[in-house]
């Protein structure tokens, strides 16, 4: 029975195989607790948009069977998109993509100071044809969440409107800075 932790509007609900209105739509997974400081930004944004999500650890190297179970059960449990973060030899997004056909957004994490995330991004970006991982920039968990929301907004007018408003807040922030610099 995966996962361990849910967030957003569905927080605290039990999980079974029947999707409900409270069923998490986005799964945020990562290889290690040390990734959480980066990956929590994705959860923050999904919460802001009122999207039910779950967040948990799935290590491709330390808990490989859990990874397979998570990926194989994801669609059946109602998840529509997965955000998968990993550092170093970041095999999680690619291996999860091998076991499910729901979209995977990969977040390369800068966990090895020596190469500053280059190892992670190279581990996930060049997938074989037919098994893609939509890889965002190093440590770009917020962009991963935005992409997930954009996918969900394709057939959800409320989310499409919320995305328009989000873009306006980004623009307003820049305009405020421009005004401050003028002073
Ligand atoms: C990867 O190894 C994880 O995604 C993490 O970024 C990195 C280091 O893991 P820890 O040694 O901090 O648990 O699998």
Automatic annotation (TrEMBL):
Catalytic activity reported: 5-carboxyamino-1-(5-phospho-D-ribosyl)imidazole + H(+) = 5-amino-1-(5-phospho-D-ribosyl)imidazole-4-carboxylate
Keywords, sorted A to Z: Isomerase, Lyase, Purine biosynthesis
Residue ranges the record marks as coiled coil: none
Low complexity bias locations: 1-12
Domain PurE, chain residue ranges per copy: 24-174
Gene Ontology annotations of biological process type: 'de novo' IMP biosynthetic process
Superkingdom field: Bacteria
Annotated PANTHER family: PHOSPHORIBOSYLAMINOIMIDAZOLE CARBOXYLASE, PHOSPHORIBOSYLAMINOIMIDAZOLE CARBOXYLASE CATALYTIC SUBUNIT
Record-given protein name: N5-carboxyaminoimidazole ribonucleotide mutase
Organism from which the protein derives: Hymenobacter montanus
